[in-house]
C-alpha cells in the first residue's frame, strides 16, 4: 500500500509539474512531510530528506518533460540558459540555508510559502503583462488570435530573478517553476506554453545542480525515490501531452485549492507537532 501511495504521488507530481511548469517538488515535499505525521513508515522523514528526495525526483520529471517539449518545439533554450546562470548559484545557496533548518519552523514557513504560491496563481492571469525591452533578449510569436507579439528581458534582470527562484528551489525543493512561470509570463511577457516548457528545462538544470549537494549531504531517501521515479517519469509525459491539448484554468483552480489545504495542514503540523 505504501509503495502504491508513493507511485501515485510521483504520478501526480509529474502530471501537475509538467503541465504547469512547477517541477513537481511542490507536490512531493509536502506529501512526504504530511505522510511523516500519519504513517510510521515515513516517521524518519526530515525537511532535509524531503527536499533532497524531491530534487532527485525532479531530475527525472524535468528530463521527461524536456524531451516531450523538445518535440513540440516550445522551449526557449537561450532564455533557459540565461536563467540557469542565476538559478544554479541560487539553488546551492538554498541548499546551504536548508542544511540547519529544524522541522517545526520548516513546516510553518513551507506552509506559508504554499499559500503564497496559491495567491500567485490567482493573480497571474489578471495582471497586465509588461512589454518586451528595447534591448536584450527579444522574441516574437503568434498568439491564439493570430496577432504577432513580443516577449523578452534584460539578461541581468533574468539572472537576478532566477537567482531568487533557484534559492527557493534549493531551500524548499520545489524546482522553482511555481515562481518562474508567473515571472516569465507577467514580467517578461512569455507566451504561457513557452513559459511552462522553458521552466521545465530550467527545473532539470536546477535539480541536477542542487540534488548533487543533497546527495553528498545524505539527504536522499533512495527507497522512496525508487517508488516515486516511475510515476514521476510517466506523469511528466502525460502532463506535457495534456498541456498541448487542454486549457489549464480548471487545473489551476484545483491546484490553488490543493496548495491552500496542504499549506494549512503543514502550518498546523509545525505549530502543534501533530
From TrEMBL:
Predominant cellular place of this UniProt entry's protein: membrane
InterPro entries per record: TM_pro_TauE-like (IPR002781), TSUP/Inactive_protease-like (IPR051598)
Keywords: Cell membrane, Membrane, Transmembrane, Transmembrane helix
Keyword Ribonucleoprotein: no
KW Disulfide bond (keyword) present: no
Lineage, top ranks: Bacteria, Bacillati, Bacillota, Bacilli, Bacillales
Organism the protein comes from: Salibacterium qingdaonense
One CC-aspect GO term: plasma membrane
Bilayer topology annotation: Multi-pass membrane protein
Record field: transmembrane: 12-38, 50-70, 77-96, 108-127, 159-188, 194-215, 222-242, 248-268
Protein name from the UniProt record: Probable membrane transporter protein
Subcellular localization: Cell membrane; Membrane
Record-stated family: Belongs to the 4-toluene sulfonate uptake permease (TSUP) (TC 2.A.102) family.
Amino acid at each position: 500500500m505504501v509503495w502504491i501511495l508513493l507511485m501515485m504521488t510521483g504520478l501526480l507530481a509529474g502530471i501537475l509539474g509538467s503541465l504547469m511548469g512547477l517541477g513537481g517538488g511542490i507536490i512531493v515535499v509536502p506529501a512526504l512531510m504530511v505522510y511523516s505525521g500519519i504513517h510510521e513508515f515515513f516517521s524518519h522523514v526530515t525537511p532535509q530528506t524531503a527536499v533532497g528526495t524531491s530534487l532527485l525526483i525532479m531530475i527525472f520529471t524535468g528530463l521527461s518533460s524536456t524531451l516531450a517539449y523538445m518535440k513540440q518545439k516550445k522551449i526557449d533554450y537561450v532564455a533557459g540558459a540565461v536563467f540557469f546562470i542565476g538559478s544554479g548559484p541560487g539553488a546551492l545557496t538554498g541548499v546551504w540555508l536548508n542544511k540547519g533548518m529544524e522541522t517545526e519552523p520548516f513546516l510553518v514557513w513551507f506552509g506559508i510559502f504554499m499559500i503564497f504560491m496559491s495567491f500567485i496563481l490567482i493573480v497571474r492571469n489578471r495582471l497586465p503583462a509588461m512589454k518586451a525591452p528595447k534591448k536584450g533578449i527579444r522574441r516574437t510569436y503568434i498568439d491564439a488570435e493570430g496577432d504577432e507579439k513580443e516577449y523578452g528581458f534584460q539578461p541581468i534582470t533574468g539572472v537576478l530573478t532566477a537567482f531568487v527562484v533557484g534559492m527557493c528551489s534549493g531551500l524548499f525543493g520545489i524546482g522553482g517553476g511555481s515562481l518562474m512561470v508567473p515571472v516569465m509570463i507577467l514580467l517578461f511577457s512569455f507566451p504561457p506554453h513557452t513559459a511552462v516548457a522553458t521552466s521545465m528545462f530550467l527545473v532539470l538544470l536546477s535539480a541536477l545542480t542542487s540534488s548533487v549537494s543533497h546527495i553528498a549531504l545524505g539527504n536522499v531517501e533512495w527507497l522512496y525515490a525508487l517508488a516515486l521515479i516511475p510515476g514521476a517519469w510517466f506523469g511528466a509525459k502525460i502532463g506535457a501531452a495534456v498541456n498541448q491539448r487542454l486549457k489549464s484554468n480548471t487545473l489551476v483552480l484545483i491546484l490553488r485549492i490543493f496548495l491552500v489545504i496542504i499549506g494549512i495542514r503543514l502550518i498546523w503540523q509545525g505549530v502543534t507537532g501533530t
